[in-house]
Each structure stands twice: as structure tokens, then as C-alpha cells.
Hints:
The structure holds two protein chains of two kinds.
Chain A: H1 6-34, E1 53-61, E2 66-72, E3 78-84, H2 87-98, H3 104-117, E4 121-126, H4 131-139, H5 143-174, H6 180-192, H7 195-208, H8 215-240, H9 243-251, H10 256-267, H11 269-285, H12 288-293, H13 300-310, H14 315-342
Antiparallel strand pairs in A: 1-2, 1-4, 2-3
Chain B: E1 4-12, E2 19-28, E3 33-37, H1 44-52, E4 59-64, E5 67-68, E6 79-82, H2 94-104, H3 109-122, H4 138-151, E7 156-160, H5 168-185, E8 188-193, H6 196-202, E9 205-210, E10 213-218, H7 220-225, H8 230-235, E11 242-251, E12 254-258, E13 263-265, H9 268-273, E14 281-286, E15 291-294, E16 303-312, E17 317-323, E18 326-332, E19 342-347, E20 352-356
Parallel strand pairs in B: 3-8, 3-9, 6-7, 7-8
Antiparallel strand pairs in B: 1-2, 1-4, 4-5, 9-10, 11-12, 11-14, 12-13, 14-20, 15-19, 16-17, 16-19, 17-18
Amino acid sequence: MKRLNPIQRVLLGLILTTAIIAVVLPLMFFLANAFSNSTEIYDYPKTPLMSFTVTVDVSYDQVTEEYVIKYVDRRGDVKNAINSSSMLLISNYFEQYFSVYRTPEELESQFEEVLTSGETIRLTYAKNLWHNFKTFFFITSKADEALINSIVVVIYTIIISLTLGSMSGYAIARYRFKGKDQINVFLLIVRMFPTVGISIPLAVILIRYNLFDTMLGLAILYSLPNIALTAWITSSIFVGINRELEEASLVFGGNGFQTFMKITLPLALPAMAASSMYAFLTAWNDTISALILTNDHPTLALAVYQAIGDNTTNLQYAAAGSIILIIPALIFTFVVRKYVNQMWGSVSV
Amino acid sequence: MSYLQLINLDKKYSAKGNMVVKSMNLSIEQGEFIVFLGPSGCGKTTTIRMISGLEEISGGDILIEGESVVNLPPKERGVSMIFQSYAVWPHMTVYDNIAYPLKLKHVPKVEIDRRVLAAAEKTNIKDFLNRYPSQLSGGQRQRVAVSRAIVVEPKIFLMDEPLSNLDSILRVSMRSELKNIHETLKTTSIFVTHDQSEAMSLADRIVIMKDGLIEQIGTPKEVYFDCQSIFVASFIGTPPTNFFNVQVIKEQDEMVLRNQEIRYPLDAKEQEILKNYLDQFIVLGIRPESFEISSKRLQQTIMQTKADFIEPQGSHVIVISKCGEQSIKISSPILDLKPKSTIFLSVKNRQVMFFDQITEKRIR
């Protein structure tokens, strides 16, 4: 690799740092939001760092005979929280506003010291990090069904776009036929259409064939651009696979189908993986089309979107929903990444 | 009856396109090692691809053991093939590569094991059976391809320039190994190459092709010493044969071949051959090693020239010289020849060839 001169190095460093900050900083804010409790969410200014604990000042008001709980934010500012004599109420408040799960008995034993000394004590509790996720599923109707719907629609999309796309990719790569160049261009044109534009006419068609509000109908929509993309990606890989590898299989006893399954397909695996990743991400992250094409059976992305719309004050739950949305995409991408990397490597021998 | 027969075999790639192979006829006996030799684009690869069934034929017939195989898919023709790029499947281990044809035929597992091991032993790749092709060198990959081809015990063994991707040292050693394998297995083999030394060292018979036509079929000795056409004479042998345009004329009692530099007296046999060409121009072909160099004019000297350049080759030298405007090459065992010295050329043992100027065929 060429050595860079100092100016180039500084410039490169700056660019890389900017890029990293541009990616990492929003991600940290996002995580901080998703794991913050209902009180922290109103902290201002916000810090990008996630907090794992909650600090409270507890004192006892002799006059009203109530415990006085004050919330201490991360800058040390003390804010009023709740006055109450009922341990049950306090316990519920802790769960709802601090994401801290403690039984009334536990709290009572910890507060005993305040009763006797009469002084204010500062207590730190570990947050239950799953609180927002639980609440998300609790307050968002059909969130669990939406998760399953999302998985189903992703599977359909991958199957449809991979089978049709790879077959057409193979045809483009291997056969000569009239209008091949035009078809190549048309494949790109398909990707130009905004999905919203296709969604509405497609909704009419889907209603007619009883596919409206079904995952298959949605998958058909997501497959449209992905078939084209898959055909593009796989055809470039199929072109790169030496024809002699397939011919060898034909000579040594394979028929066309066996050759495709045992030789061509394994060699095209990186392309398939890359295409399936794109198919996955389209189907998993889309909200607009799902909004148009479904009624009672939302996908997870749609459910999160609706959660934001419904709970403008409790953004942390929507953020938690987004995390649920990200994790499978993250796992899938990492699994597939291994094969995608091969795409620029050892395919052709 | 011959083992493999090509009858009026035609091939063109598109309806309007050129004929790549033009009504080819060839009979091959069982156990023969045939080499298709020719420059690139002469149709030799197309021919063996048609035999293997990878390429459709446009006309004619292919018979294996007397039965037409034209309508059979490649796998039912009983042929196996070694490809130029080895075509070893990169996603399978060496063992799986070799076992693949047997697995598809549902051979029992024990039998597969035995045959793969036997094939791997023959090609010395027994130690690499669990490796992937990317971990092997070019030569080892080629051995895998050979093992895979012999494991199916084919009727005919087709090889499409199998050595052309190897370096020159490996090529020579693989060549003798292939020869060795053929000696033991006695499988009918067809080998395509553009390298004449490969063809010479391997073949029982060489089929020399040009522009889709067979120029000559013969043993290595025949195609070298008994060329049928100017093309064969120029294609076989390094450096290539020198050609001279000469006129057959009668000087006194004697018939001679003449041009401005050359005077070649014909003996009785040669006079008989050329009796119809009196006063006509013909092409005289003389191989570089058929020349004899002497420092003074002898009785048999046919021309006088100057040694322009000397290229030492170790055991002999190549002298580059001129006959009129035409450059000629002479192979000589005289190692201490001085550049720019005058030399007199004669022909050893009357090793000359006469060709018709128009048909470019040998006159005999």
C-alpha cells in the first residue's frame, strides 16, 4: 500500500473521525434514549451516554408522615418526585418512572434508616434495562404479532426475490437472447419507482386477489425491486464463474439441475447472501408500504412507527421498539457478511 | 470398426456464421492417443467439445463404439474431460471433487472410497484429499482434474489444452505423467494443444488442423518428415521450415530448381516427381536442420550467403541469414561460426520437400 504524506494522513484522519462521529454519536444518543427511564427522558441537556443506575434522595417528612423521594439527575440537580406514605405506591412509582424493580418490603427496609435518623440519604439503584422493551410490548397492541409478521414477510421476500432474481440473473449471464440489453436496463428502471407509487395500484390488485393485509401480498411488493437487484448482483457473479466448472459437472454425470444446485449455486453463494441481505433489509425496515397494504396485521417496523405516533411523550418505548427492530437486522447482516466478503475474493478459480 | 468415428462433422455457431469445423472425417482406434494440433481458432477445441457433447453439432455424425451419440447428453457418452482451466470445483475438497462423478452415479460409498484412493494414488495427490483446491498449486490442481477424469473409467479421455496453464518445467513433467497414465490405462485419448512439442511427445497420431479442416493425420514422425502441405511444414518444427520460390528448369541434360540465389540439381527420383512441373514455379521447403554449412564451395552447394546473426542454443546454433530478401534460419552443430562470415549451404541427404504453389500441397 502506498504511504501517505503527513497532510494526506491528517486529512484522512479528519475524514475518518468525522465519519465515525457521524455514525457513532447518533447511535449513542439513540441507545441512551432507548434505555432511559421515564424520568431521564426529560433530562435536558441530554448526554449521549447510557445510564445504568438511578440515584434518589430519600427523606422523611415528620409533619405529613410521608417519605419524600427526590430524583437526582446525572448533573447532580435534585428534582421533586413523589411524596407518599404507601410503600406499594412508591414501589409502583419506582417501576414506572425509574425502571427500578423493588418490592415494597425491600424498599421499606432500605428506608428504615431515614425513619430513625431523620436525615436525608442518597440511594443508588440499578435500572432494569428490559423495562422499556417490556413496556413497548405491553403498550403497543399487536407488537408480538407484528414481530412474527415481520419475520414471515422477510422469509417470503427472500424466497421470492432470490429464486426469481437468481434465475433471471443466470439467464442474463449465460444465454444470449434478443433484447438482453434492454432487459438489463429495465431491471434498473424497476428500482427507480418509489415503493409508495407502486403500493397504491398494487393495493387494488391485492384486494382483488384477496391478498390485501396478508404477508404474502406485502412480500410481493417488497420483492419487486429486489428481484431486479438480485438479478443484477447474481448475474455479475454468474459471469465470473468459469463456464468450465459447470461443463465439467455436465461431463461428469450431472444434469442441468444438479449442476446448478451443486456447482453454480454454491459458487454464487456470496451474491445470494448479499442479495438476501438487501431483501431482508427492505422488507424488515419498510413502514410506508406496510402502512398502505396492511390493516389489522402490521409489521414490526410499522408497529414501532405507530408507537411513536401514539406516544409522543414516551419516546423511550418507541426507541426500545427500534432496538428490537435493529437486532435481527444486525444479526442477519453479521451472519451474511462472511459470505459477502468472499464476493471480492475467492469465487473464481 | 473404429472405436470413435467422426463422419462429415460440421459446426457453425450461427446460421450465417462461418463454418468452424468443415465436414471432418476421422477414425480413432481403441487405446490410441490422438493429438489435435493447430493454431488457435482452427476448430480443434470445438471438435472435442462436440465429441464430449458440450457443443451441439451442425451436421454429420459422431459414433462411439459404432453407435451415434449425437443425441445423448454429455454424461451419457462415457467420456471424461480435462479442461484448460482445470475446472476443479473450488467449493469442494479434493476428495469430493474426485468422488463427484461417482456420487452422481450412486456408486456405493465403500466403492467410491476405493476408487477415489486408487485414482489419487495414480496421480500422487493422496496426501491432499482433504484440502480445498485454493490450497493447492496449479500442478496439483491439474492432478486433481486428471484423477477425476480417470476415476470414472471413461471410454474416451478428452483433454482440452490441459497443460497450457502450467509453467514450462511442470508442463514437461506433467506431460510424461499423462503419457505414463495412458500407458497403464490404455484409455483412448484425445488431446488438444497448440504446442507441437507436446503433440510430438504424446501422440500416437497427430491430427493437424487449420481453419476447420484436417491438414494431415499421421504419426509424429510422418507429420515431421512427410509433410503434406506448406502449412504443416511451416507449423511443425522450430525454427520453421524455410520456403523458397523456385523454377523447375532444364540446364543441358540436368533438371534443376533455380532462383536468383539457389541452384538445386535434382536427382532421378526427384526429376520423376517434378516432371510435370517443367518451367513452372514451385515452392521448395528445406528444414533448418537439413542444411549443411561449409566454409567453401562444394560440389553439392546450393547457395552462398552470409551468416547475419548467430543464436547459440547450447547443443547447436541457429544461424539467421538471408536468401535474397528473404530471411532464412539454419540450425547447425558448428558452434564456433563467426557472424558476418560467408557460408555455403548444401542439403543433407536430399531432405527437401516440393509444394505446389497454388494448392500449397506436397508434390509427390
